[in-house]
Amino acid sequence: MKILVCLSHVPDTTSKINFTDNNTEFDSNGITFVINPYDEFGLTRAMQLKETLGGTVTVLNVGPLSTEPTLRKALAIGADDAVRIDAEPTDASFVAKQIANHVQDNNYDLIITGRESIDYNGGAVPGLLAGMLQLPFVNACIGLELDGTKATVSREIDGGKETLEGSLPMLIAGQKGLVNEKDLRIPAMRGIMMARKKPLNVVAATEATKHTSVSSFDLPEAKSACTMIDADNVEQLVELLHNEAKVI
Amino acid sequence: MSVLVYIESWEGNFKKSSFEAATYASKLASQLGTEAIALTIAASDDASVLGNYGITKVLSIANGSFNNQSYANAIVAAASQVGADTVLISNTNNGKSIAPLVAAQKDAALITNVLDLPSSTSPFTVKRKAFSSKAFANYSTDSANKVISLTPNSYGIEEQGGTASVDSFDFTINAEDLGLKSISIDKATGKISLTEAELVVSAGRGLKGAENWGMIEELAEVLGAATACSKPVADIGWRPHGEHVGQTGIAINPELYIAIGISGAIQHLAGVNASKNIVVINTDPEAPFFKAADYGIVGDAFEVVPKLIEAVKVHKANN
What is the number of other CB atoms lying within 10 angstroms of the CB of residue B220? Predict the structure, then answer.
C-alpha cells in the first residue's frame, strides 16, 4: 500500500486574521502555523492503514521553505518520507497541477487530502487533482475501509451520509469522522529525532497556468453593540426578532 | 457566451439553494449581457418554474442517480451544447464534489464559496469567504472559462415572473462512473439541513449533558430551525458530528443563530459569525460571544429556554 497525504500549512485555528500592504497580503506576523486540521484526520487514517496493511506514507506540500516544519511534524508523527514542491501556492489549479505531476511519476494506491484548508477554504485542490488524474473522488469523506483494492467509503451529504464502493487507486478529501479527534497523534520525542533523518525531497515546480489571483482581502464589519435583554423578559427578545430583525 | 446553472434537487425536488443559484445566475447573466440557462438532472419538479427566477431555458436530463464524475460530465456537455463559458453551482456537499471536476475538465478558473455578484466583470472579480469566515477575499480571473460556486444562504431568492422553456437533454448518467458506486444513503431523521437552514438553534457545554437537549430540540421545532452544537459537545459525543458548527465543522450563515451555553471561542465564531442575527444566552456576562452578538440574555439556559419556547409559541399563535 502506497499512500500519499497532501498537507496544507495553515494558521492555527486560534489565529486573529489581519492583512498588510493595503489589504492585499496576509499578515503572518505572530501567527503559528500548523498542519491543516482536515489534513491531520487524513494523515492519522493513513498511519492506521499503514500499520494494519503495511506499505508507506508519503507526505507532500506545495509551498516555500517556511512550510518545512509542517512536513517535519508529519514525519515525526510517522510518515516515511516527505516531498516539498517549491512554489508559492497561490492558485488552486496551479497547486493541483504540481501534485498531479508528482503522482504521475509515482504510482500511489491512495491519495488523501483534507476537504479544504482552513485559510482559503477553497476546497478546490482535491477535486481538481482528481479531475486531472481521472481518479474516483470522494469529498467530505468521513469513513474509509480497505479490503485489498476494494474501498468502502462514506461521505457527508446535505441530508445525511452516503456510503460508496470503489477500487483503488482513489482520491479522498477527508474531515473529522475519518478518524476521531482523540485518535490524532502528537509527535513523541523519539519520532521527532527520527524525523530528522527521514528524506524530505525538494522538487522544483513546473510551469502551470494560474487561473485566479486575490486582488484584496476584507475583514467583516464590526458588530454594533449587543442589545441586552433581561432574563425575565424573553418576550422582548421575541418581539425584537419579529419587528426589528424580522427573522421570525 | 451564456451562463449555465446546475439546479440541484434532493429526492426529485429543487433545493432552496437551487433557487438562490438560479436568481444569482440570471443576475450574473444580465451583468454579462447574456442569458442564464439551467440544467436539471433527475428532477420531478416542473422545471418551467425556474423562469420565475430569471432562467430563460432549461435542459433536463430525466433520469440519473448521483455520481460526481458523471454529473460533472453532464454539466460540461450541457455547457458545450449551449455555448456557456460560465458555470454556476451551489456550494452544497454535492456541488462541492462536482464543481472542481467540471473546472478540471474545462481547464476553467474555479472560484468557490462566492457570496455576491462580481464587483467587476473585467477582470472578473468576486467576493468569497476565506479564513473560515474570519475574512473575505476578492478573487479575480482573466480566464474566459469560469466555474463559480455560490455559498447557500448568501444570495437572496428573487421572483421575477416568467416561465422557462424546457428541453430534454440527451445524456446518459453513469451511476458507476470511474467505478464509484453508491451503496446506501442514511438520512438524518426529519432534520432541516444546516447549511440551508434560515434559523439555527445551537447549544454548547453549558447544557451540561446530552440528556438536556430536549428543550433545544423543542425550541428549534417551534421556530422551524435546525439544531447545531459547539465542537466540545460533538467531541464528547453528546451530539452527532454532523451538527458541529465552527471553524473545523460546518460554516453557516443563517438569518438567525441562537447560541445557548456557548462561550464563543474564536474557532466557534469563525464558523458562525456570518449569521445575519446572533442571539447569545449565557450565564457568564463576560462570555466573549456577547461581543459578536446582536441580542444577549445573561441567564441560566435551564430557566431562559423554557420561557423562550413559551414566548415563541404565544407569538406564533398570534401571528
Answer: 24
The answer as to whether A226 is a domain residue is no
CB A22: neighbour CB atoms within 10 A?
8
Q: Are B280 and B259 in contact (CB under 8 A)?
A: yes
| Whole-angstrom distance, CA of residue A98 vs CA of residue A85 | 7
ipTM of the complex: 0.96
For an interface test with B, the pick among A27, A214, A226, A244 (most B C-beta atoms closer than 10 Å) comes out as A226
Residue B290's domain is classified under what CATH number?
A: 3.40.50.1220
Which residue in this structure is represented by grid cell 505531476? Answer: A101
Give pLDDT tens digits for A219-240.
Answer: 998 888 999 999 999 999 999 9
Question: Inter-axis angle of helices B214-223 and B301-318, to 10 degrees?
Answer: 20
**CB-nearest partner of B292 from A181, A182, A223:** A223
Q: Which domain holds residue B43?
A: 2-179
Residue A156 lies in a domain: yes
Is there a domain that residue A243 lies in? no
pTM beyond 0.80, yes or no: yes
Q: Does residue B43 form part of some domain?
A: yes
Instruction: Tell me the percentage of chain B whose pLDDT exceeds 90.
Output: 93
Band of pLDDT at residue A241, cut at 50, 70 and 90:
very high
CA A80-A84-A89 angle, 5° bins: 140
In a domain, B189, yes or no: no
Mutate to test the interface with A, among B193, B248, B252, B256 (most CBs of A within 10 A): B248
The minimum CA-CA distance between A89 and chain B, rounded to whole Å, is 15
Q: Decide if A13 and B266 are in contact by the 8 Å CB cutoff.
A: yes
Reported as a single tens digit per residue, the pLDDT across B238-272 is: 998 889 999 888 999 999 999 999 999 999 999 99
d(CA A76, CA A117): 21
